[in-house]
Write the structure tokens for this entry.
Amino acid sequence: MASVRVRGKHRKTYHITVSLGRKTDGSQHIKTTTFTPPPGLSDKQGLKAAKEFAAKFENDCKGLANFDDSMTLNELTKWYFDTIAPNKLRAHTLEKRRGALSRHILPKLGGKRLRELTPARLSAYLAELRNVAGLSPQTINNIRVYLSAMFTAAVKKKMVAANPLSDVEALRVEAKKQPVLSPEQVKTFILGLAKIDNIGVRGLLLTQLFTGARPGELRALTWNDINFDKGLLDINKGVDDKGRVNQPKSKSSFRVLKIAPFLLSFLIQHRRDVEYLAAGMGSAWTDKNLVFPNPQGGYLHNSTYARAVKNIIAGTDIPPDFHPHSLRHSFASLMIKSGADIKSVQDSLGHGSAQMTLDIYSHSFAEARAEAMVNTADTIGKAAGGALDTLLLPDARTLDEGGDV
């Protein structure tokens, strides 16, 4: 029960103390406040009002039994990455987030008490990262998400009262047009692929171009994931740069893709090539049943196929900033160009929402709409034939026919 003690003789106030047990370090965990009764109340009425206030204050405090606003951001970060993140994030994602916070946030704010990290203070520091440190808006928005995830977890555990990042707005990020292959450049790229000796790299890059799958998803692909009879490819896992197999990036990333006839024929041939390579390696072969193994049978490293892409595009008209993930963008761009709707593209790529797909490929959808409008106008013109000439003045008809006015 809350302790209520009177203070003052003439203008009485009440000191209220609530005990919440012991902290993790063994010290007593208490919360205190003061209450001043409204004017005009007798001493008896004032004490009654103070006790009612104390009861409400105690209930509020017990709702935040673990609340300790003297905790530092360093301590909150350690708690989150030791106890919460391992159960929510893939190892690669966990390391990426912890690394970003260690580089950009904790050196400056790690020692601050949580009560000091107001929305205004956090907004000011994120602006400093943009204006002084020169971080991109997207990087800063990512850091904001990482911080917000920590505070959200702390709120759920009743360690803090609110998430200050809820009132910190994300920065506006300009949509960047991704480098993609044009239909003509697809031929150039495939001719370059044919010169790659590493069969795992060659197969992975071709399959990525034909399916839009993520590199990590294809590196983890096993022969059990391919149904040759039905021509289906089951995306159900991924692998990171350290060879750790994880579930796909999100729930929506679990998907089954239809394999194009040519790719299916290629994969049948590719399987024979892998079996031949394995037989030649003998006991030195690491059998992981991978579709796209390295020369020893293990997982391909991303630097291996990244280097292959650089070699393929060297001396061609393919954009110099084209990289392995650009094959995924190229697949999406060509899919949109062929007339696919947003939902179909979203499902094929495994995006969490159609809005994400639209945000990433806004340029491709805009170009497809413009081309569709021109094609539609051509269709109308061909259907109307010479009837359109009746709507033009003689001078305009002469112009339309390319003559002089």
Q: What stands out?
A: The chain is about 50% helix and 10% strand. The mean pLDDT is 87. The longest helix spans residues 362-384. Residues 3-63 form one domain.
